[in-house]
Amino acid sequence: MKRLYLIIIILFISLKCEIYPPDLDIGFDFIEHFREAKIIPDTGKYNTPNGKIAFVHKKWNIYGEKRPAIVQIPDNPDGKISFFIPPKKNKGKLYFGISFSPPNPPAGEGGVGIITIEYDNLIDTVYRSYLNPVENMNERRWFDILVDLKKYSNKQISVSFSVTKGPNNHDVWGWFAWSSPVISSAYR
């Protein structure tokens, strides 16, 4: 069974499809709940569709592959998007894709995508990844990720997405995208 599941995952990746299992029961869809998210800073000074550091795009294009995504600019070190997840919606795994879209022509040093979970007055970093498609050609694509949330199952949590500058702390040009982030409704 595990071998079959691995073959299915490889097939999904090779076909550039979302990596979610075909029978996934979605407990929480971050894009559907984006309007309820707390966005910090909550200012209108950014050159984005909503004037904030993050927005939803229905077909964010990464080198020819389009996906629905929450798109975030790594402009503010304290910037983040936080979602309150009720216990009944938090019973599985976090599925999402990531990519960094540099400007045209490519410049900058990419960015670091971070996901934290706040629960019981504690904060855990559950995911951290540095992407620099300007210098790394193999990073000019979507990466599908799965994070096990069993530790937080049936707890009231807050999930936050943030983006920071690369390791040299240069000004960042580009956009970090979180494609179709969801939490499954059951642990498998």
Briefly note the structural class of the backbone.
Answer: mainly beta
**Mean pLDDT across every amino acid position:** 81
> Which sheet architecture does the biggest sheet show?
6 strands, antiparallel
Following the backbone from N to C, one meets helices and strands in this order, namely HEEEEEEEEEEE
- How many β-strand stretches? 11
Please supply descriptive tags for the structure shown above.
five-stranded antiparallel β-sheet; single chain; 188 residues; mainly beta
Task: Summarize the topology.
Layout (H helix, E strand, L loop, with lengths): L1 H13 L11 E4 L8 E3 L13 E9 L2 E8 L7 E6 L7 E9 L9 E9 L2 E10 L11 E6 L8 E9 L9 E10 L4
Antiparallel strand pairs: 1-11, 2-5, 3-4, 4-11, 5-10, 6-9, 6-11, 7-8, 7-10
